[in-house]
Design brief:
Helix content is 46%, strand content 11%. The protein is an alpha+beta fold. A 4-stranded mixed sheet has the order 2-1-3-4, with no helix packed on it. Helix 2 runs parallel beside helix 5 (89-107).
Amino acid sequence: MVDFYADWCVACQHMDYTTLVDDKVMELSLQFQNVKLDPSKDEAAEKLKNDVWQVGGMPAYIFITASQIETTPIGLLLPDAILQGKQSASKFSETQEKVINEQVSSIA
């Protein structure tokens, strides 16, 4: 999972202290490679956010399973694999499960 955030982003801080520390979200996160990128401080991260994945504001989360990193060209993701803005833990974990299940079914 790529987590686009910024230190000054209030919604990002809200997600860090609420949704992302939810037990179910944390458990499901173990099935992803997790990376936090700050596009406001890193030009390459800004290019990924804006040009490759065409994500607007922050926070934004791109879900990629470990096996997808090797098999999926960047930019070709499930339509529901991108979340933007504040999300509830249930919505966040629902998206995680959907990506994991899609990946499992594509391998089978």
